[in-house]
Amino acid sequence: MSRTSTNLITSCGAITLLWLAGCTVGPNYKRPQTQAPPAYKETAPGWQVAQPNDAMQRGKWWEIYNDPTLNALEERVTVSNETLKGDAARYDAARAAVRLARSQYFPTVSVAPQATTARQSTNRPLARNAGALQPITNYNDILLPLDASWEPDLWGRVRRTVRQSAETAQASAADLENASLSLHAELAMDYFQLRSLDKQKQLLDENAAAFQKTVELTENRFHGGLASDQDVQLARTQLATTVAEGIDVGVARAQFEHAIAVLTGQQPEQVALALSPLEALPPAIPLGLPGELLERRPDIAAAERRMAAANEQIGIARAAYFPNLLISASGGVESGGFNNLFSGSSGLFAVGGTLTQTLFDGGARRAATEQARANYDATVADYRQDILTAFQQVEDNLAALRILEQEQTAEQVAVTASQRSVELSLNRYKGGVAAYIEVLTAQSNSLTSQRTATDIQGRRMTASVELIKALGGGWNSSKLPNPY
To answer: 296: which of 86, 118, 248, 472 fits an S-S bond (Cβ 3.0–4.6 Å)?
Structure first.
């Protein structure tokens, strides 16, 4: 065969190998179509929402509440929360998995130097048949081998594995962001519930002080013969009950304070928040368009990335139907001594290739492909369900904010009326034209109305936090890192 023919065959073989290396079997990923409503249902006329602002865009959404204490606590969550540290470590592991997958692009090279000194028996079989000369029984063997092996990515298995690892790493990054959002939101809700309890404590203490004056009034009237001992005991009962309720608030408050400590990576005894009754109202929250929600939720981004990774697994399973080529080469030097170890005659080499094709596996490859397709279908269903859940959560909290605002307005009317009722009842009681039970009823109703109004205010604040969480907290999928 001529040199020209040999070169032509070699060139054709190289071109064929490069073409095969460019082949990738399996489906290409395409994000499934989803539909978003044109507008949120619960944004009724008259319910105002803000335009996006800097605080939400930066991701430090808690700054929208303008509470320095809350801001300081939220910053500690970012750097000290142990759950976040664990999620960050898992993301680092996912990034390392990408580098591990990428290593399959390159050949594996190993070296295993050997040095042997041996003595053979002169009485071994056939030792005397080697010739008239005295057989060699003592010898040295020094070997410096270099071995290399490489499996070309003929069908895209490695490329898909790298993409799958990268998409899994992006899902892990989204999980980290979602965990951060959830923990920051949990802290904010605990904080506002604690402040709501501070408001409850303040109300109970104020009413206890008012009830103390009522006790003194009934005792004076009793000593003057204008009231019965029953009136005195009823007044004392109401006072003691209110004091006890004020003390009981401390149980829930302590639990929220302990929860805040743990969320900020501290021991419970390290956190002591001063009493600060809740006075704030929910701020206006930027909603954006419903279609933007899919890009703003880290949990949806994680579900989408897992869906892409599951698609790559189908291609990986399909690649098992095709043959694998393993190219290996070895070389080095070998000699009985160091004096001529690196001479030309001491060199050795070998080059070869192995083509492997599975002929029968009992349906294993088919089952693996079907499993990969089923897993992909499951991730698609999870992705679409996450989208539905996201819209539900936004609508739920929009409805909660709108309805609770109306409820608080109505309840405030009840508070004003009940306080006026207490004034009128006390005046009637002092004038001797009303029984004490009328005063007791009016005071109880007033306290109940005030506590209800405070509870509604706390629920409005937590609903606003839930809404920000449902909207993604100012995050955007463009912030996903590129782990390639």
So the answer is: 472
